[in-house]
Amino acid sequence: MSRTPFGTFLARMLACGLLLLFATAPARAEAPPGYLVPVSYGTTVDLAAGIATFAIRFDRTPDFINDANPTLEGDAFQFWTDTVSTDPIRSTYDGILGRGPLGTQMMVTTRAIETTNQLLYVWPQLQTDPGPKDPGGWGSIVAYADYTLAADNTLSFDVPLALLRAPDGHFNYVFQTYQFNDGGFINYAGVSGETYPMPCVPEPSAALLLAAGLILPALARRRRSA
């Protein structure tokens, strides 16, 4: 019976090990360099107090003012919530353009931090509504609110369920992180009452170690049977 050359055998085992590793590794949102990246995020709901608490732990300390270059905008994020639609961004756009209903959405944005050091809460309105709107033009300002930033880079803030239009405490949300000078954004989605740790794909060194762990025992068995 012919035997597979050792080099070919080793290459096949390495390929199988790496394929197994990356086929089972959890996906992670890829953010361009410089973007805020959440390590974890989620919400808790206190029905008795009528409050939802949002918390995002970032991979670094947010710089909303861009201290390194005050002429450029810094880090930013925006939450879109909806008590009915599972796609709050689409439902908000459809609503302000008159293509869908309004009244179940709310937005939380960092646009006011530079001037007030507070978050801005907004109820979306029709684009054609002549009333005063927030700086982004989404709708009416319903509150300016404080936030806290802990030493571990966890940013948290409270929103009354009445402002979320969620008396039962249930809502869907998507939040986007921005680098406004870059023009892009990254989306992260969730449901009230849940916490989402961000999975990480192993670094290349870890991948090689795992592959070696799969391959070396097989080599030992092959040599014993030779």
Put the structure in a nutshell.
The protein is α+β, with helices and mostly antiparallel strands and 226 residues long.
| N/C terminus separation | 12 Å
Count of distinct structural domains: 2
Order of helices and strands: HEEEHEHEEEEHEEEH
| Uncertain spans | 13-29, 200-220
Strand order, biggest sheet?
A: 6-5-4-3-9-10
Number of strands: 11
Taking the sheet with the most strands, its summary is: 6 strands, antiparallel
Describe this structure in words.
Mean pLDDT is 79; it is low at 13-29 and 200-220. This protein folds into 2 domains: 6-25 and 203-225, no CATH class; 38-197, no CATH class. The strands form 2 sheets. A 6-stranded antiparallel β-sheet has the order 6-5-4-3-9-10, covered by helices on one side. The chain has helices at 6-24, 88-96, 113-116, 161-164, 204-225, and strands at 38-46, 51-58, 75-82, 105-109, 119-124, 139-145, 148-149, 154-160, 172-179, 184-191, 195-197. The protein is 26% helix and 31% strand. Strand 1 and strand 2 form a beta hairpin. The longest helix is centred in the C-terminal third of the chain and has 22 residues, at 204-225. It has 226 residues and is an alpha+beta fold.
